[in-house]
Design a protein that fits this description.
Layout (H helix, E strand, L loop, with lengths): L1 E12 L2 E9 L5 E2 L2 E3 L6 H13 L4 E15 L11 E12 L10 E7 L1 H7 L3 H16 L2
Parallel strand pairs: 1-6
Antiparallel strand pairs: 1-2, 1-4, 2-3, 2-7, 5-6
Length: about 140
């Protein structure tokens, strides 16, 4: 099983949180900042590294106790190298950015801060949509 980690990043925009979504330049899918872990890398450390590589964000308040673990299959041929199908485990943490400032990496062709409904319209994978819903619920509860 391949392991990955990332952040559901949000900012407060009035009473509605806005989440940062990035569109992968290679296959056009929208997701949160995330990526594969290096050998023996801890999930939270890898999530920080990926966040900085993909967005340049270095200031983030981590919401303790929020950790989503998503498991799914990646079909064969999904990557340019024609890799075989594999199982993936993605750990997502919740973090509040200090501002909406970020820098796009070459891995993505576009990104945007969106409200929950905008995210649900863009994200194609139901398990990620569910994680975003749970994040929004947690933010609304303030806990």
């Amino acid at each position: 099983m391949r392991k990955a980690a990332g952040f559901i990043v949000f900012v407060r925009a009035g009473t509605t949180p806005r989440f940062l979504l990035l569109r992968n330049a290679r296959h056009g899918t929208w997701s949160v900042p995330k990526g594969h872990l290096h050998d023996a890398e801890e999930a939270l450390s890898g999530a920080w590294r990926e966040l900085q590589e993909e967005t340049g964000i270095t200031q983030l308040k981590i919401w303790p106790g929020f950790e989503e673990v998503l498991s799914y299959s990646v079909p064969a041929g999904k990557r340019k190298d024609g890799a075989e199908a594999y199982e993936k485990e993605l750990r997502l943490f919740l973090g509040e950015a200090a501002s909406m400032a970020w820098t796009r990496s070459k891995e993505h062709d576009i990104g945007a801060w969106m409200d929950l409904e905008g995210c649900l319209d863009k994200v194609q994978h139901e398990i990620l949509r569910d994680a975003l819903r749970r994040a929004a619920t947690r933010i609304a509860s303030g806990a």
